[in-house]
Amino acid sequence: MNNNFSYPTLEAFNFGGMTKQNYKSAKVVIFPVPYESTTYYRPGTKYGPQTIIDASRHMELYDITLKRSIKETDIFTLQELEPSKNLPKETVLRVKDVIEKILEDKKIPIMIGGEHSITVGAVSAFKEKNFDFSVLQIDAHADLRDDFEGTKYHHGCTMRRVRNLNSSVIQVGIRSISPEEAQYIEDRKVNNIFFYPDLLIEKIVSLLKENVYLTFDLDALDPSIMPSVGTPEPGGISWREVINLIENISRNRKIIGADVVELSPLPGMIAPDFLAAKLVYKIISYILS
């Protein structure tokens, strides 16, 4: 397992191109997980983390809304996790180990993927460390299958596993579910799913506990601005809507960790890569504001 907490040796590894990163002083730790094990309409999520980091090096670091820049010493970028070549659950457990170490060091983990199944490892780590928290999923898909393609750790099963770990789950932006998921929602009387376009921000915030783990699948966004995902769904959230939602959550609750997953880069199309990097930076900005 490559649980590497040494200093990256190349600027290319550093989110935002920040050259003065220091793990001991950092408040936020970027954790890249280039994991892809299952089928998509279009594969490529294993290239997502490095693509986001590459794009981030070309961002302006001053936040116009918050009127501040993040200090270079506030962020530390870990080297990529080496995913398991065996069972998907093994990669989830590797993720859990690293997130636990980050939490032990009293830092806020921001994971960039990679497929959505890695979220289970992060939530497991917070649960292991006895955090009392809600999980907020922003996604096009419910991801509530019990198993798929021979594993319970398929990205389509992510939120079913998360719900098994933590009963406080709010799902936002959903616009695609399977018959099995529809039956699960009916049988369990799940009523905290906000199907797009119902983005009732006050209601969403009211359902969240004080501490919130945010998991953001990029296919939640409208494919017109985010086509670079494995399963793009028609419709979806705009940039302004999602920033407004995250801003409101950060103002009224405490984001204790986050992940941004499922970028599947398209050759020659750089705008979605930049959007993903900007989204990660905005989340960090709101956490530290």
Low-confidence stretches: 1-11
CATH class categorisation: Alpha Beta
**Gyration radius from CA atoms, angstroms:** 17 Å
**CATH A-level architecture:** 3-Layer(aba) Sandwich
Quaternary status of these chains?
single chain
Number of helical segments with 4 or more residues: 8
Q: What structural class do helix, strand and pairing data support?
A: alpha/beta
Q: How would you write the strand order of the largest sheet?
A: 4-1-5-10-9-6-7-8
* Outline: globular
Number of strands: 10
CATH superfamily name?
Ureohydrolase domain
Percent in strands? 15-25%
Sheet with the most strands, sense and barrel status: 8 strands, parallel
The CATH topology corresponds to: Arginase, Chain A
Describe the 3D structure.
There is one protein chain. With 289 residues, the chain is of the alpha/beta class. It has a single domain (11-288), classed as 3-Layer(aba) Sandwich (Arginase, Chain A), CATH 3.40.800.10. The protein has eight helices and ten strands. The chain has helices at residues 48-56, 88-104, 119-128, 158-165, 179-187, 201-207, 239-252, 271-288, and strands at residues 28-33, 62-63, 68-69, 75-77, 108-113, 134-138, 169-174, 193-195, 211-217, 254-261. The strands form two sheets. Strands 4-1-5-10-9-6-7-8 form an eight-stranded parallel beta sheet, sandwiched between helices. Strands 2-3 form a two-stranded antiparallel ribbon. Strand 9, helix 7 and strand 10 form a beta-alpha-beta unit. The longest helix has 18 residues, at 271-288. The chain is globular, with a radius of gyration of 17 Å. The two termini are 34 Å apart. Residues 1-11 have low confidence and may be disordered.
